[in-house]
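INFO batch 0412 | record 1 of 1 | parsing
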Amino acid sequence: MRGSSRIPAAAIAAVALVAAAPPPEPVTPRAVLATAPAGDWAPIAPEDLLLIDLEGGVRVAIALAPAFAPVHIANIRTLARAGWFDGLAIDRVDDGYVTQWGDIDGTKPLPAGVTKPAPAEYERPDRGLAVSPLPFRDAFALRVGYVGPFAVGAEGGQAWLAHCYGSVGSGRDGNPDTGTGAELYAVIGHSPRQLDRNIAGVGRVVEGMPYLTALPRGTGEMGFYAKPAERTRIVREVIAADLPAAERPAYQYLRPDSASFAAWLRVKANRRDDFYLRPAGAVDLCGALPPVRRAAAAP
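INFO prediction complete | emitting C-alpha cells
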C-alpha cells in the first residue's frame, strides 16, 4: 500500500534481538590485561632480578633498576654472588612503613668489590630517559610517569624512583651516609613519597609482597625486632642469571609505552563498571604501577 507506515517484519525481528541481547560487559583493568598482546609485555632481565629465599620456603623476587642506582645495584650483585646475605635476617617490620633486612649489627665484613661509600644515587639526569608520562597531577614532582616497571618522578632536569608500595631502597644512617645495598627495605604501607630523592631506590618487589606485609610487627624502636628469635632468616639471596635456566623464574611487565598500558591506565582512572557511581578521572602514580606477571621460563 502506497504511503504505508508498516515496519517490515525483518526490522521488527532485528530490533527484538537487540533488545533481548545482554548489555556489553564493562571494560575492567583485568579485562584489558587479559587481551593485551604478547608484544605489549617485556621481560625482566635475569641479571636484574634478585631472588630472596626465606625460611619456610618463601621466595621474594625484586626487579632491580640499574639505570637509577648503578653503584648500589653493582654492590647488591656482588653481595648476593658472595653469599653475603645468606644467614642474615629480616630484622625490621615497621607497621605501615617498611620491611627491612640485612646485617642489623653492621659487623659482618663486606666482601671485596663492594663500593663504600657509594655515591648518593638519589636522582639522576633525565636526559635520555624515556618516561611514559602519567597525565595527572602529583604532589611530589612536576612530572611523573613510568620507566620499565618502575614509577618515576622528574623535574629540574633530574629523575628518580618514587617510593611506592613494594618499592625497594638501600637503607642508610643519617647524612652523609648513603648506604651500600647491604641493608635493604621494601615499602609495605602507604607510599612514603617524602623519601623520594633522599634514599637510593634500587628496585621493586614483583613477587612476595603478601608475605612481607603479613610478618609480625617489630616491637622495638622504629619497628626493629627486640629479640633475635623474632627475625626471619634469609636462606639465600641470588641473582636469577646465576641459576640454571630450568630453575630461573621469569617475569614480564606491561610496557608503559604500549597501547595496552594506555588502555589499562584509562580504565584505572575512569572505572565505569557496576560498582562505581562517579569515575575519579585520575589515578595516583603509585596506584597504577605497570602490572607484572609470571612468564614461561626460557627454554
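INFO post-check: Residues 11-23 have pLDDT under 50 and may be disordered.
INFO record closed
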